[in-house]
């Protein structure tokens, strides 16, 4: 899985750099904009489109995610009792750290 992800980095460079070069040189001066301005605009449009797609398909709660199995949902979203236990441990740790700091003064 990590190998596929890491392979995407050089592939993006091999594909993206010539496309960016083409945009910068062929669209430079069009509508009075420089090539880099067109490049920023095109990249911004693709980012906004992807954001809309993510908003449309991403669920607000783990329990609503249809693409997760029941075991994955349990692993990601702990029960309320577990959440309370974790918060208590964090609180105790934070208080203990604060008392050590005050003791050093």
Helix-strand blueprint:
Blueprint: H1 2-26, H2 35-57, H3 70-76, H4 80-104
Helix pairs in contact: 1-2
Counted up, domains total 2
Rg to the nearest angstrom? 24 Å
Structural class of the helix and strand makeup? mainly alpha
Strand content: under 5%
Structural features:
105 residues; mainly alpha; 2 domains; 4 helices; 76% helix
Report on the architecture of this protein.
With about 100 residues, this protein is mainly alpha-helical. It has two domains: about 1-60, no CATH class; about 60-105. Helix content is about 75%, strand content about 0%. The protein contains four helices and no strands. It has helices at about 1-25, 35-55, 70-75, 80-105. The radius of gyration is 24 Å and the shape is elongated. The model has no long low-confidence stretch (mean pLDDT about 80).
Question: What is the structure about, briefly put?
Answer:
The chain is mainly alpha-helical. It has helices at residues 2-26, 35-57, 70-76, 80-104. The protein folds into two domains: 1-58, no CATH class; 61-105.
């Amino acid at each position: 899985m990590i190998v596929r992800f890491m392979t995407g980095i050089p592939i993006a460079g091999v594909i993206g750099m010539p496309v960016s070069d083409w945009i910068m040189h062929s669209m430079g001066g069009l509508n009075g904009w420089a090539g880099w301005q067109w490049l920023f605009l095109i990249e911004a449009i693709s980012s906004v489109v992807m954001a809309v797609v993510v908003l449309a398909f991403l669920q607000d709660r783990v329990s609503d995610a249809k693409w997760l199995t029941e075991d994955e949902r349990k692993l990601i979203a702990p029960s309320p009792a577990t959440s309370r236990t974790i918060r208590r441990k964090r609180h105790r740790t934070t208080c203990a750290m604060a008392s050590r700091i005050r003791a050093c003064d």
